[in-house]
Amino acid sequence: MKRTKIIDLFRPELIGQEVCVMGWVRTRRGNKHVQFVALNDGSTVKNVQIVFDMSQFTDEQLKPITTGSSIKVDGVLVESMGKGQSVEIQARELEVFGTADPEAYPLQKKGHTLEFLREKAHLRPRTNTFGAILRVRSALAFAIHKFFQEKGFFYLNTPLITASDCEGAGAMFQVTTLNLNNLPKTEEGQVDYSLDFFGKPTALTVSGQLEGELGATALGAIYTFGPTFRAENSNTPRHLSEFWMIEPEMAFYDITDNMDLAEEFIKYCISYALEHSLDDIQFLAEHYDPELVERLRFVLDNEFVRLSYSEGVKILEESGHKFEFPVYWGADLQSEHERYLVEEHFKRPVILTDYPKEIKAFYMKLNDDGKTVRAMDVLFPKIGEIIGGSEREENYDKLLGRIEELDIPMKDMWWYLDTRRFGTVPHAGFGLGFERLVLFVTGMTNIRDVIPFPRTPNNAEF
Ligand code: ATP
Ligand code: MG
Ligand code: MG
Ligand code: MG
Known about the structure:
Blueprint: E1 18-30, E2 34-40, E3 48-53, H1 59-62, E4 70-79, E5 87-98, H2 114-119, H3 128-150, E6 154-155, E7 161-162, E8 203-204, H4 209-219, E9 221-229, E10 242-251, H5 255-276, H6 278-288, H7 292-301, E11 305-308, H8 309-318, H9 335-346, E12 350-356, E13 372-380, E14 384-391, H10 396-405, H11 414-421, E15 427-433, H12 434-442
The protein binds adenosine-5'-triphosphate and magnesium ion (3 copies).
């Protein structure tokens, strides 16, 4: 018999029909007359209840059905009398694919802590919580492509191995040629990590933006969506060493067009998730964050506040609030400052613009004051910075000036400067950290919990 996914069982026309389901057992309970098994197959956060009439099955047959085991059941779908479920399956036939020794299977309890599950990252997708998070993550990824594709943006793949440090922060991972099964050794017998990429020093990309600009100044509007790497040894709940970034880049856009796009984009993604992943979001709200749905709808219904960095700093200075890090004009804002503006002062998302050039990257367009650049950071409740972007400096001489001022090795940048040498155009773009968006939409508070395999300074095992 053909398998039906659990998510497709809740259709009225299936009532009374024979169905076949396959999945992993969450729990089993009951007595000698009847046994109830909660089964999940990953297609939805909902489990389906399988009812075993013990006059038709033996104890021996059901013995292998423990938490974590995998089974196939044929039976009749009926309306359920039980609380919290609309349908259940009366089992006729049972096949066990794989057992899960209760002594060894780590996911026994109903409510493991997120910290415990981080230690079991290889199995945690089998929990309701991580199933929900990963499905929301997948829906958001689809929404991102859909948004840009429908707007006529082209998806551009930028290289992961590069020789330039886009953000100028020096936080890159070097690429070496290594055979993990046969590590090269120095004469002293130590592992030799000094090998490079076929004779050239290269690193894993921190951002696809510079290459994205090459795409935008040819195709008009592009977006990237790929992994980025940052060797920042910051153990915060918002930073990963490997994270996914979405970077749209648009020719003929100024900073206002850029802000409009960022706001429309992020609202589209949230609204798509609410429409297509509501069960999962509600499950997460119920278990972790009761105000989640309300917060998501609030962001959709309200315009983001737009103000300059200088105005933002003034508000922070005059707030009388005691921050851990000092605020003054010229300081890079920390998430406590960003969250204060969003959560305490304006009580909605904020777009801050026109930052001091010293705290922003070399490629941002200089304002007429000579001190600030046309940068924009989108700040969100619970998160702080979720998007960083800018209008780009399109003037060849000014850009060259910045490159020299910052002592960026010219030999690495000739290809980038060519976009300004030949047919330069005004353009702008931004980067959204995918995991920060997933954090916001799932209501989770630690970025390690919204990516299947978190890479942090103390976790690169599997
Ligand atoms: P932050 O101030 O939080 O360190 P950033 O200003 O260094 O972020 P950008 O270089 O502006 O980050 O990158 C664009 C976006 O990528 C950020 O707005 C954020 O959403 C995301 N991002 C940056 N660094 C990380 C990281 N280490 N882990 C996860 N997401 C990140
Ligand atoms: Mg940073
Ligand atoms: Mg920042
Ligand atoms: Mg930034």
